[in-house]
């Protein structure tokens, strides 16, 4: 019978910087699986002279590296063909973003891993967040270091499981000073450059956020995913009332406190044309939104509450900022307020109602 070959499962251990313990944790899990009877081998291990890591590899079978002669030197790389021939259930591969020696069958180590996965072998691998292609420019701005070893974001997105190996910046600096990451002569240079506390704090946040993003995207693709919002997202509802500028500034401050993206929505009635003054006011709101690096959304709908709720669902909003109703109590009693309608329509979204002075510029 002809069975379709199962693709191997890929588990990535990701951290904010060298020395957080990615390889050690990978080896720990490998030992536990070996005790359960799983056939585990080491395809490529980089200990960087760390004794604890080398000791942790004891007892696990290591596939010998492939030797490549280059310019009179003998260099080594992972022997992908030998791993596939050995056909274990699980192979461990360190430093996923590594660039292979010129002349190797494949340019990047992640390409070797993809080849192994295609044969049905499971892979555990390690990487640091700064090696993601999309974060390269941001990491360079944060650390003033241009990371040359990079891999496509899709590798992380396509992984079956991603585990963040997280330690505090202080713990990582302690490990560095104890000589557990680099040789003694490199410690001070590392502390003065890449391992500065502010760098580590920013990189740690990047690592945690990257995995949170992947969890949220995965949840969004499931039937109940729309209610799984890990990150805060702020939506400000502006109108032709002058208080919209005040609301927008308040919403931008809220987004800043929460480190959240800002969205601004204006709902236009299909049967009502804006005056020149009102159009200029909305244009001002849009320009202000862009100054705050937000996303401005224009919607045409006679049902304002429904339109706002739809935008909130589409952009997975968690916080909505609206102004206090400018209608009279009698109008609210007869027609209901926007706030009341939104409360009925929204689920798991916080509503911020900002009190402002009433101004008679517009009719809505």
Automatic annotation (TrEMBL):
Q: Which domain of life is it from?
A: Bacteria
- Annotated ranges, domain UspA: 232-345
**What keywords tag this UniProt record?**
Kinase, Transferase, Two-component regulatory system
Q: Give the transmembrane region(s).
A: none
Q: Which InterPro entries match?
A: Histidine_kinase_KdpD, P-loop_NTPase, Rossmann-like_a/b/a_fold, Sig_transdc_His_kinase_KdpD_N, UspA
Q: Which residues form a coiled coil?
A: none
Give one GO molecular function term.
Answer: kinase activity
Q: Do the record's keywords include Membrane? A: no
UniProt key word Metal-binding: no
Q: Which positions fall inside the Signal transduction histidine kinase osmosensitive K+ channel sensor N-terminal domain?
A: 6-215
| Protein name, entry field | Sensor histidine kinase KdpD
> The organism's lineage?
Bacteria, Bacillati, Cyanobacteriota, Cyanophyceae, Nostocales
